[in-house]
Each structure stands twice: as structure tokens, then as C-alpha cells.
Amino acid sequence: MMIKTGGQIVCEALVREGVDVIFGLPGGAILPLYSTLGSYPELRHVLVRHEEGASLAADGYARASGKVGVCMATSGPGATNLITGLATAMMDSAPIVAITGQVNRGAIGSDAFQETDITGATLPVTKHNYLVMDTRDLAATIKEAFHIARTGRPGPVLIDIPRDVQAAEIEFDEAEYDKPVSLRGYNPPTTADEDAVAAAAKLINEAERPVILAGHGVIISRAFDELRELAENAQIPVVTTLLGISSFPDDHVLSTGFPGMHGMAYASLALDQADLIVNIGARFDDRITGDIKRFAVNSKKIHIDIDPAEIGKNIKVEAPVLGDVRAVLNQLNPMVNQTTHTEWVQHIEHLKAEHPSLRIRESDDLLGQQVVKAISDATKGDALVVTGVGQHQMWAAQHYQFKNANSWFTSGGLGTMGYEVPAAMGAQFAHPDKEVWTFAGDGGIQMTLSEFATIAENKLPVKIAILNNNMLGMITQWQDMVFNKNFYANSYTGNPDFVKLAEAYAIKGIRVTRENELEGAIQEARDHPGPVVLDFVIRAEENVFPMIPSGQSVEQLIEESL
Amino acid sequence: MAEIMANGLARRTLVALVENKPGVLARIASLFRRRGINIASLAVGASEHSDLSRMTFVAEGDPSTVGHIAKHLDKLIEVVEVSDITDNNVVWRELAMVRVRATQESRARVIQLANIFRVSIVDVGAEAVTMEITGDTSKIDSMITLMQEFGVEQVMRTGRVAMLRSALSQGGEDGEYGDQISSNINTLEGFDSGSV
């Protein structure tokens, strides 16, 4: 037995969980923990400028590394600032543990200074959360939290620790750290029921026009080889969801893009014309299905998912398979006949030729699409790519040719503008030696650009590509196409000079206004050892196509601007 | 089949075994609230495990949403088990306490009716009596209706508690008052009204 403070127990438990970086910002109610943190050099603390940056960086770190991302904040406003990042992680199943300070136990419920009921506030945006009222429970709680965050369908877990629980000294037995987690109400599935797998295999073996819809689940369970084996073995074209991008190489002959609202027309048509959709770890999100009554009505559906609540939630499924994607594919692959679907694959090739979807038009002004394509060409599809949310995000998804597994990080579910800078920071911490590019809009970047300081301070060589049209591009597009050109609150007339702004943070800034400057500027940025902000001044009146308007079906697909 | 109500909403009965800890009910309520599901009744009490509680919900909402709610409940870490027993063979009961005006003149008739309904009188005051009714919803409804004539001062209903029938049990229809416990009805003995 040893005497330890709550703060020491937290730090030691984090070390045991393999944590190497923490994104955080201290405040009064978490100071006892912070006063201990410095004694644990294994835990590198990254001091962010805003707590939203901490939770989004933890999300980016988690997705890029496959490990649990950790963020910390104080009580009250510190904790509430984390919420957007927690919600982002919840929607996209990213494993995060957030640790917040809370006011002293005796003050809870008294509207004390900087008190917020953060476990109450984060109920709907966490997989689970804890308010630890006894220092003796800390070790077990942290172990449980990491277990819950990373297993099953991953997600964010918040641990709220009152100040006096952090500060208290207790007699502590180190064996506490090694107690196995036992949760009666939490038994995520791994392998699937054999009969369910057999039923799925039968549908695949009988199908004439099968399509795989690969989702984030493939990436989360690291089932890249298993997915490829299934696709190649039975010659099945693969479309991915937005979050499934980089689960299957873009240059593979069976790669068929991503479908849905701004996906490739041929991908949406392939889903519509298929007689079997093999959904692997995707959730039939509304951005893909549009009108669920008219979605892929010609096909039977197999749905492989670890979350029973996802099966049958949006779309009726003939063959549900409950389990971890990788485990299920390992069960399924031996049962699938090696075969070809020559006619169907030829038809898909024909669709790709008929509906090129990614044609970039001639333009005197610089276009966002050209920027993405130039960066994709320059990096040879090898970079880790992060985005914000909006037009630039869709152009990045469309025009970057991903070669490597798990190299695309975007807020698909929550659609969090402001994700671009902090998440890129997290991805760079996860992979210090990889080239990280983040695509931003001039709107989203202003939500979290306070983290420029954190990037500069930590000498992270992140390349930040702002597709700057001085407006909220996707808002403008919707007002143009859906709201009868009733433009309002869509343009920024007082944007900062992003090059000067970068320089103010001692970050290299480059402005690009013409297509013929692209190659040189991108090369200059890649050659620079530190962070770079590239301000690409792009054509403002440019919409993202293809487009299936919200709640419509493939029949309403608009291929390109007239 | 779920009961479809006049407004098109479905009513379903769920039973959950949950960790007996602070905040569990809030987590559960949050799932219902978010999806616009109304909790028509909720009964919570001890289970056969000292650290677990058993809850019975009657939930009303959009048929597909309310049909899916058990899966969402099951995802909560502190929910150990949950079943939607709407379509199962279950036995269920509800308890109500009803305070009825009963003056010297009317008291005899109130008690007489209570006896006919096999309802026990648990408190008698100068101006009112309190009766305890156990049974299905319709029995309690009819008893309250019948008492309107004397003046119903207060009604407190527990909501439904339900349990799957064991394979060999010879019970009546769902919610029907079985013979096995009819001997208890006029007495307080054997009833632990605090358990719901």
C-alpha cells in the first residue's frame, strides 16, 4: 500500500493505458491533476488555445492512430467547450476519453463558480460518462472508460472528477490498476452467428449484380485486407461511404467511388441498379439513402455491423450480421464462392464512362477542385488528408486519390466546421513522420484557427490549404439551388488576410490565385519543414456536383452545372 | 402486436434490468426524450439481485421509433438486460390507491362496492376512505369511474409491472386477475406496495 493522490492515480492509470499525448487546457477545478501531470514525462501534454481544439485534436489523433485520444479541461466553460468534439466523435465512432475537473464534492449542485453538470450535459453525446465521487474509484473508472471507448462501436467517454477527489490522498494498492474490467451490461459482439454469416454468403453467391458499400466500420476494425479479399474473390464493385473513403484503394479496378448527395453519379447508380448491397460497417445514413422509400429498391441488403441498434434502423435488411467487421469478414470470406461478375463490372465501367462526375470545367479563375487535384497529384495520394465541412470537403473527397488505408479524416456525421485545424494537429501527433494536409474553407477555419498557435508552438509541419471564396460556399450553393437564389448571411466581406495571419503566428503563408501557380506553391509548401498556410483564392460562384438534393433519390441526380 | 392508439402512436411494454446507481434513470429518460417517446408509465424497484433494479416501461411513440427503443436501451452500459415484451405472453399488474369521499351516509355503499370489486380499504378517515386496487388497467379504470359518484379526491397509480410467464404456468389472459392471488385481495398481508 502506498499513499497516492487522486491526480497521481489518474496519471498512472493513463500511462498504463498507453497514453502518450493529452490535448488540454487547465483551469481551477482541474489544477490538482495538472500539478501532478508534470511528473509524468510519458504523458506529453499539448496546451491548446480553446478546449474545442482539444476534443477535436483527440478525435483526429484517435482516428489516425487507432488508439484512444485523450483531452482534458476544467469544469464549467472548459468542459462545455469540449462538447462539439465529443459529439463529433460520437457520431463518427471515434474513441476518446475526456477528463474534466469538477467543483468540490460539497459544492456540486450549489451553482458554484465554474460549475456545470457536465455528465448531464454530455449524456446524449458520449458513449458513457462518469462522475467520480470517491478517489478509490478512480483507477477502475479510468480502466473502464478506456475499455468502453475503444471496444465495440467506439465512442467518447467522459470522466468528471471533482477537485477534492483529485487532491485527496488515499492508501492505494497498485493491484487496483490490474483488476479486470467487468461490466455486466456491456458485451460487444465479436464474431457473428454462423447461420447469419451463412445466410449472407448465400445471398452473395446468388447475386448477379452485387455492390459492396464499405463504411467507417471497415476502417475502425482495420479490415482492409479482408474487404479487398471479398471484393476480389467474388469480383464485387466497392463503393464507400464518405467515412469509408480510404478503406479501399481509389486506384483499384473495382473501386467505384462514393455515392449520395455529392458522391459520384456512377456510385449512386451502381447502388440503385444492384441486386445485392453488402453493407459493411456503414449505417445507411441519409446523405447516402436520400428518400429511404426510393433507396436501392431493386436490391436485397446484407448489413454487417457491430451495433445492433443500427441494423434495420433506416433500411430493411434481408441478412443482418451482428459482429465486428473484421471478424465477420474472416468468417464470411471462406464461404463466398470465387466467381466473376463480368457483365455487371463491365456495366459499371460503362456507367463510369457515361457519368464521369469528376470533370473539372475550364475556368479563368482558380477552382477548388483544381487545388485538390493538384495536391493529390503532388503528394501522389500518399498524404493523410483532413478536412473541414462544406464544399471544400466534398471536393477533397471527390478529387483526392487515396492510395493508403485510413488516410482520410473528416467529420461526416456531425459535420463539424472547425474540425480541419485541430484534427490535423491530432493526426500529425499520431504520425509525426507523415505528410498531413488539411483542407479548409474560409468559414470553418475561422472557428478554430486559434490552434495555429498550438501548431506553431509544437512545430507540427501541417499543410493547411484554405479554399478561400470569401463565403460560406455550401450555404451559398443551397441558397442558389434550393432557396431560389435568396442569398443571405452567406458571404464574408471582412475576412482577414490569411497569409499575414499565418505570419503573425510565425507560420509560413503562401497566397495562390492562378492555376499556373499551383504546382510551384504546393512544392514550396512541401519543401518547407514547418507548418504552412496556403490561401487559395478560388472562384466564388462554383457549386459542388454531382448533387442529389436532400430527401430525394437518384432520379433527381444533378450531374453538373449547366 | 403493439397497441396502436387513436393518434397513430404505438404503445409498447419494456422490461429492463439495470444497475442500481444514481443517474441511470436520467440516461434512460434521455433516450426516450430525444426520440419523442412518451413514458406513459414507469415502475422501478428492487430485483432478485441486490445491486440491480428492474424497470417496467410503457412507452408511447411513433411505431417504428418505439419499436427500436429496446435496442438503444441495450446500448447503455448500465442496462444489463432489456426486453420488449409487448408481443410476449406476460403477466402484468398495476396498483392504484384511490381516495374517495365517504361520509357517514355513503361510507357503507363505498365499502360494499369495494368488496364487490375485491378491493381493499387501507385507510378510513372521517370524510374519506383510501382503497388499494390491484389488477389490469381496465379494472382500475372502472373502479375509479364507479367511485366518481361519491367524489374521487386523489388517484395514485403505479404504472404497469410486467413479467414473462414461465413456460408451464396456467395463468389467465395478460393483466387478468388470476385466481392464485385472489385470497390476498382484501387484506394488506402479502402485499408490499413499496416494491413498485
What does this structure look like?
The complex is a heterodimer of chains A (about 550) and B (about 200). Chain A is of the alpha/beta class. Chain A folds into three domains: about 1-180, Rossmann fold (3-Layer(aba) Sandwich), CATH 3.40.50.970; about 195-355, Rossmann fold (3-Layer(aba) Sandwich); about 370-545, Thiamin diphosphate (ThDP)-binding fold, Pyr/PP domains (Rossmann fold), CATH 3.40.50. A six-stranded parallel sheet of chain A has the order 3-2-4-5-7-6, with helices on both faces. Chain A is globular. The mean pLDDT of chain A is about 95. Helices cover about 25% and strands about 40% of the residues of chain B. In chain B, the strands form two sheets. In chain B, strands 1, 2, 3, 4 and 5 form a five-stranded antiparallel sheet that branches. A four-stranded antiparallel sheet of chain B has the order 7-8-6-9, covered by helices on one side. Classes of the chains: A alpha/beta (about 550), B alpha+beta (about 200).
User: Helical content of chain B, roughly?
Assistant: 10-25%
Which whole number gives the mean pLDDT of chain B?
Answer: 84
Briefly note the CATH topology name of the largest domain in chain B.
Answer: Alpha-Beta Plaits
What is the mean pLDDT of chain A? 96
Side-by-side strand order of the widest sheet of chain A: 3-2-4-5-7-6
Give, in order, the helices and strands of chain B.
EEHEEHEEHEEHE
User: End-to-end distance of chain B, in Å?
Assistant: 26 Å
